[in-house]
Amino acid sequence: MKNRLKEDIVASGRFGREPERRVDAFDILDPENGVTRPTGTEANAKVRAYAMEKMEEAGLDVRMDAVGNIFGRKKGSDPGVGAVMCGSHLDSVVNGGQLDGALGVFSAIEAVRRLNDEGYTNRRPIEVAVFTGEEGSAFGMTLLGSTALVGKMSYEDALARKNPEGRMLKEVLENSGYAGEFVMDLKNVEYFVELHIEQGPVLYNKKMPIGIVENIAGITWVYATIRGEGNHAGTTPMKMRKDALVAAAEIILFVEKRANEMVDKLGSATVGTVGKLTVFPNGTNIVPGRVELGIDIRDVVPAHMESLKGEVSEALKALEEKYGVSVDVSVPPFHSPEPLSPEVVDIIEKSAAQTGVRTMRMNSGAGHDSQNIASRVKTGMIFVPSVGGISHAPMEWTEWEDIETGAKVLTQTLRNLAGS
Amino acid sequence: MKNRLKEDIVASGRFGREPERRVDAFDILDPENGVTRPTGTEANAKVRAYAMEKMEEAGLDVRMDAVGNIFGRKKGSDPGVGAVMCGSHLDSVVNGGQLDGALGVFSAIEAVRRLNDEGYTNRRPIEVAVFTGEEGSAFGMTLLGSTALVGKMSYEDALARKNPEGRMLKEVLENSGYAGEFVMDLKNVEYFVELHIEQGPVLYNKKMPIGIVENIAGITWVYATIRGEGNHAGTTPMKMRKDALVAAAEIILFVEKRANEMVDKLGSATVGTVGKLTVFPNGTNIVPGRVELGIDIRDVVPAHMESLKGEVSEALKALEEKYGVSVDVSVPPFHSPEPLSPEVVDIIEKSAAQTGVRTMRMNSGAGHDSQNIASRVKTGMIFVPSVGGISHAPMEWTEWEDIETGAKVLTQTLRNLAGS
Questions:
Q1: Long-range Cβ contacts of A22-27 (<8 Å, 24+ apart)
Q2: Which of A126, A317, B124, B260 is 20 to 30 A off residue A359, Cα-Cα?
Q3: What value of ipTM does the predicted structure carry?
Q4: Is B391 helix (H, G, I), strand (E, B) or coil?
Q5: Phi/psi-derived region of residue B383, left when phi > 0, alpha when psi is between -120 and 50, beta in every other case
Q6: The model's pTM
Q7: Considering the domain B4-216+337-418, what is its CATH architecture?
Q8: Do B365 and A235 touch (CB under 8 A)?
């Protein structure tokens, strides 16, 4: 039998990849050659066009809203009930993988095709959704399309955001023909479900085919600049130094130790990472005068996240007295942890059991459009394993067998949610 | 009275500085506007020409050797005794200060002028010396000219070294007319003395006008690459990480702690610095996959330096088991600590006392041509205070009063060394 889902994934995986001549991207995963299709790029327009064509072929009624979110409707038999929405995103990070987002979109289209094939009559309408700008790689914020959709930001503000070339989202969408006029009223949507790669190592390490997400972690970033005194490494005695990197090292170990302690003592899903650190002037023979740090803190329990953020900020300020440095701390706006719908979690679990597939409940450490939709609509997420836990990188990959298992569980979940 | 030394320093401070129109560089120290005259640059050729003119005006017989070291000879009264050499260098780091090196050259010329003025008859010949390429900012190694002079490297190898544009030192010297044929035989040199700015904060903090150097610290660099696993900061649980930056943080604190302990317990002059640290890929939301470190270790006691270098290398390798990372360590060729001549130290101390100037004995944490010359000739160094300990930066500065004190002590030292 023809594997339509595989065909879609292979075909869509060519957009934003150099060289595009590669026919089956899956057979030639290349660590240097990932997928690059931020919102507004030609590659992004091409993958959107491809998906819309497939949606129309599946008999869906395709519309676009003002920020370019795409919706494809399969009518339901009961005009009085809310829809089941299902989908993900098609944009990518720079040099990312081909499954992050795209798998959720094409699995949703494939689920509709399977329901069509079996002559299934859905009571609720099904809306396949493609959200604009999930990755934040072009317009300076993640989850752009879903943020506007749920009303956390106005459509006008979203459209006024600029990419690094200084072009507004509005202009970019109009130029590529992706500025629509449709308005999706979430009051008419009862459920949302998103299939996604895990992007972490848990399912892969446990050899577990399906994860059911109970919570999406909140994210807070803490930026810090530590200023000491840049000096000659040979002529400045140890006792006369204000070494910004020594102070920073203490914070790196503090974040790692405290996050581990919270996991051990509270059984929490806390993660704490100093991912970014830049030293000035960065010469082997110069005592570091300034260090800039970017710290990432996540948890599914708001109090845990707040607590660790507070401790890290205090530890940063305490460096001033201990090392004679000065420390500036800034905390940009952050995402709160978002619990998903227990009802949808149960239905996904039941659907997997009906399909004969093992599952585990888990949390998502990565952000997803689901966390926005969950603020308005009963929402669930299905995870499939990422080989080696790799994501946002060219080697991002999920075994074909696991992709098919995900598609089956998603289809069964749609049957259960949309009613017969 | 006309201040010839001040005139020379102000005039030479214009070469390699933008804009050159500035008349009195000292009155307009500018943090953005330093001196840039690596070997082979037009600015370097200009400052050499200026110094040679002043040497000739002072009656010196000026010659150049194959690598461009300049020597200006004032004949002595006794043809059978070794010379007293005195000087420093005229090249600079990029955007450095105007005193590093230049002060030693122009103070030596001024000392000869003062001896001439008073009709002083020196028994030993005096050789004012300007060494090529001390800073290593053009030809990839420090102390280039003095290394060739003392025979640690052949003149041929020195001349074959290339600058970042791929041009050999030989070509650069020939094009600027600074390739000579004179051969300085160090067997005919009895003493060497170099006046230099301290480049550190010790004299300035202690308000001490003169430092007499007993040892020049050895320098060893340890380069390390720590490879962990670059992963998503949100989706990678704390217990599944191999964070290269956490491992690096432990080394930063180890170097700082052990160097301090050696100072405290051994009273040593040990310094240990992680001056360079680069994180890959360096994104706030990515667990660092790789960190590259540059570590600088210095001491005047060879055993101390070796001991700390060994401990740091072991600590780096121990990260492999503790953090599951891999660590590559490399140690490029290093400079051994060099003791200076106790006889010359005593003579400088006596000379300062005769001049009515307070002094302290100290070590040099920075490298100097003196450490090369000391391997062949009885050598001493005189330090003057660096304001705020600043060097290798545009704000490098020594008060005029301290410069004059240094010149007086140097002149008296030459009287004592060259005999009456």
A1: A25/A98, A26/A397, A26/A400
A2: A126
A3: 0.88
A4: coil
A5: beta
A6: 0.88
A7: 3-Layer(aba) Sandwich (3.40)
A8: yes
